[in-house]
Amino acid sequence: MESLCIRVSRKAGEETRMKLAELRAINKNLKIRIEKEDLLIPVTKEIEGYEIEKSNFEVLEKEPSISELLGFVPAYEQIGDIAIIDRHEPEAQRIAESLLRRNRIKTVLQAETSIMGEYRTREVSILAGERKTETIYRENGCRYMLDLAKVYFTPRLATERRRIADQIKDGDRIVDMFAGVGPFCILIAKKFPAAHVIAIDKNPDAVRYLNENVRLNKVKNAEVREGDARDIAKGISEVDHIIMNLPHSGIEFLDSAFGMIKNGGVIHFYAISHEDDLFEGILEKIKEAACLFRIQIIPLDKRVVRPYAPFQYNICIDFRVVSLMA
Ligand SMILES: C[S@@+](CC[C@H](N)C(=O)[O-])C[C@H]1O[C@@H](n2cnc3c(N)ncnc32)[C@H](O)[C@@H]1O
């Protein structure tokens, strides 16, 4: 069937596909085509910034959607070939059986607890499918192997990770203080081969996967360190960007970040805040910590990253650090 389409090199294919998906421009009824070194992505409309052409595409057979199968829209999260259903879902077993009818889902888990503890993990049980909790998840052109029972991971930060990566320059020195299995630092290391990334995590399982993911994505400029970010920070200085993605207790680690950042460097600080005071309370605490360090902070950007719980939001504040000692 003939359709409008966008031609991109295979190398840039995944990034472009994600951008087009965000713009809801991909014609999902048609199969993306490979033509020599190019991908032809069928689209439903013209999109600013892209050259449009026309080509023929194979029509995909339409699977019944999960909501068509169930008669309602189920809430679940898909990470690689594993789906996770919320622990409070009364129809979990029925949803699990329907999800398994989707080719890509091999296992359905149910969360048994909320995300908790220092390592930000949750207990899960296997509802249906293969008895496994390990999967490979693709995001922003990278692959991450991870075990959903042993490490933290959410696919809901994909856009946020790209946004941070877009602020880095080749040659920068970056510290990802709470790196998990590496979705911020590996993306950055891959995108900027001349940058140097130090990725820290305290959870030995997260570090095992972080090392595996460095290999999987063939990045040569990421240095993995296992341990408490406070201890590891002591040996690091002159950093251009620090990512602090520990939203519930990042404030307690600000002094370590201030010790590592170079004059003029940028900190990307995540927190959870109430809708009545999204940014000001957190900014005050950051300023208080900065004052003790005799530094000034200059907010560059503040934004809501995603809803977190009723009335609560995961937010990010990017700020520049300027020394007052000079
Ligand atoms: C919210 S998760 C973020 C992981 C990763 N940035 C991501 O986006 O998937 C926080 C991570 O910080 C790690 N962590 C918690 N306390 C830590 C500490 N004191 N030092 C280093 N890592 C820590 C946890 O093990 C967990 O992997």
- Overall average residue pLDDT: 95
What is the H level of CATH, i.e. the homologous superfamily of the largest domain? Answer: Vaccinia Virus protein VP39
Rg, rounded, reads 22 Å
In total, the number of domains comes to 3
Helicity level = 10-25%
CATH architecture of the largest domain: 3-Layer(aba) Sandwich
Describe it.
With 326 residues, this protein is of the alpha/beta class. It folds into 3 domains: 2-56, 2-Layer Sandwich (Alpha-Beta Plaits); 66-132, GMP Synthetase, Chain A, domain 3, CATH 3.30.300; 154-323, Vaccinia Virus protein VP39 (Rossmann fold, 3-Layer(aba) Sandwich), CATH 3.40.50. 24% of the residues lie in helices and 35% in strands. The protein contains 9 helices and 17 strands. The chain has helices at residues 13-22, 66-70, 92-100, 158-165, 185-191, 204-216, 229-233, 254-260, 280-292, and strands spanning 2-9, 33-35, 38-43, 52-56, 76-79, 82-85, 107-111, 124-129, 134-139, 142-147, 173-176, 196-201, 222-226, 239-244, 261-274, 295-309, 312-323. A 7-stranded mixed beta sheet has the order 13-12-11-14-15-17-16, with helices on both faces. A 4-stranded antiparallel beta sheet has the order 2-3-1-4, covered by helices on one side. α4 (158-165) packs across α5 (185-191). The longest helix is centred in the middle third of the chain and has 13 residues, at 204-216. The radius of gyration is 22 Å and the shape is globular. It binds S-adenosylmethionine. Residues 118-120, 152-153, 157, 178-180, 183-184, 200-203, 206, 228-229, 245-246 line the site of S-adenosylmethionine (SAM).
